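Backbone-to-sequence.
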C-alpha cells in the first residue's frame, strides 16, 4: 500500500481517516459511486475513474447521477454505465465525489434502499462533512487529483481509460490549466496521465470544438445581457428560459458561459445567472483576484471555492440580481 501517494489528502478530524477508507474498501463488496446534480467534468471524471479502479479490485460498482451527463462528456470512457435510478437498491458502501452538500446528490438519491457506509471525497472548502468518512482537501486542484492519489495508494494501475477520465477532471477544474488551482502537482499528474495514454488534442476537440450551433445562438443572446456594475469591477450575464426556447438550446449548453464576463478587463467578480425554474435562478460566481466568492455564495445558502462558487436564489430576475449585486459590493 503506497502511503506516500496519499500525501496531501487531508482528512477532517473526528469524522474518519484515510485508513478507515482503505479498510472499508477492502472489507466490502458492493459500491455506489455518486456525484452532484448538473454534473461537470470533475464530478464525472472522478466518479468514472474511481468506479473503474474499484472494479479492478474485484468490487461490484454502480455509478449514479441524478441528472443526465451533458453532451460534452459523452465521449468519456464508461459514461454509458451511468444510471439515474437507484430506487430501493442496497449497497455496502456509497462514495460521494466532488459534492459539497448531501442535498446536491439529488432527489433520486433519496430513494436509495440502503447506502451502507457513507464516504465523502471532495475538494470544496465549504463541504459540510455529511459522510461517515470525510476526506476533504481544499488545496487539491480537483477531486480528480484526490482520486488519482487514492487509486495509486491502492496499487490500482492507471489505465488509459482511468487516465482519460482523470485528465478531464483536472482539465475542467483548472480551466485548461489556466486558473490558480493549476498547481505544479496538477501539471505533474497531467503529465503522467498523458504518458498513460491520454490524447490531449482529442480531449480538447471533444470538449471545446464539438458544440451544437444552438449553443452559439444562445451565447450570442446572453452576451447581449452583460452589465458592468461597481465601477466595472463586477460583470453580470443572464440566460432566461425564454432565451433557451428561442434558440432551441438546453441548460447544459451554458457550461463555461461565466468565463465571458470574467474575461473583461477590470472585472474582479463575474456572475452568470440562469433561470432554472419559475422565480428561481442559479448563480455561478467567479473571481479573478483576492475576493473569496465562496463567502458570497454562502450568504445565499451556496458554496464552492475561493475563486469559483455558486448558489440558487428565489425571486424575480431583477430582484435577485440586485440582491446579489449588493452582496458583492460589500466584498468589493
Amino acid at each position: 500500500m503506497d502511503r506516500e501517494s496519499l500525501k496531501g489528502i487531508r482528512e477532517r478530524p473526528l469524522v474518519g481517516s484515510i485508513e478507515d477508507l482503505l479498510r472499508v474498501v477492502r472489507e466490502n463488496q458492493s459500491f455506489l459511486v455518486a456525484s452532484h446534480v448538473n454534473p461537470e467534468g470533475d464530478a464525472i471524471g472522478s466518479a468514472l475513474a474511481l468506479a473503474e479502479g474499484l472494479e479492478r479490485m474485484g468490487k461490484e460498482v454502480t455509478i449514479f447521477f441524478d441528472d443526465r451527463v451533458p453532451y460534452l462528456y459523452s465521449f468519456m470512457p464508461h459514461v454509458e454505465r451511468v444510471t439515474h435510478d437507484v430506487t430501493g437498491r442496497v449497497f455496502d458502501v456509497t462514495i460521494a465525489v466532488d459534492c459539497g452538500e448531501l442535498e446536491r446528490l439529488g432527489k433520486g438519491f433519496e430513494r436509495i434502499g440502503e447506502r451502507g457506509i457513507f464516504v465523502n471525497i471532495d475538494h470544496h472548502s465549504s463541504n459540510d462533512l455529511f459522510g461517515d468518512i470525510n476526506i476533504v482537501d481544499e488545496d487539491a486542484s480537483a477531486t480528480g487529483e484526490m482520486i488519482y492519489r487514492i487509486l495509486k495508494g491502492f496499487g490500482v494501475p492507471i489505465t488509459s481509460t482511468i487516465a482519460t477520465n482523470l485528465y478531464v477532471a483536472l482539465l475542467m477544474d483548472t480551466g485548461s490549466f489556466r486558473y490558480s488551482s493549476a498547481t505544479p502537482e496538477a501539471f505533474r499528474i497531467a503529465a503522467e496521465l498523458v504518458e498513460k495514454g491520454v490524447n490531449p488534442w482529442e480531449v480538447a476537440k471533444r470538449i471545446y470544438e464539438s458544440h451544437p450551433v444552438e449553443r452559439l445562438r444562445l451565447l450570442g443572446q446572453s452576451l447581449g445581457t452583460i452589465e458592468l456594475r461597481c465601477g466595472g469591477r463586477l460583470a453580470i450575464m443572464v440566460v432566461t428560459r425564454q432565451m433557451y426556447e428561442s434558440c432551441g438550446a438546453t441548460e447544459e449548453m451554458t457550461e463555461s458561459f461565466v468565463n465571458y464576463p470574467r474575461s473583461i478587463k477590470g472585472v474582479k467578480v463575474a456572475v452568470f445567472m440562469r433561470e432554472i425554474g419559475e422565480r428561481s435562478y442559479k448563480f455561478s460566481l467567479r473571481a479573478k483576484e483576492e475576493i473569496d466568492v465562496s463567502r458570497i455564495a454562502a450568504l445565499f445558502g451556496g458554496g464552492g471555492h475561493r475563486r469559483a462558487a455558486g448558489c440558487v436564489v428565489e425571486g424575480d430576475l431583477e430582484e435577485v440580481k440586485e440582491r446579489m449585486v449588493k452582496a458583492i459590493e460589500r466584498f468589493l
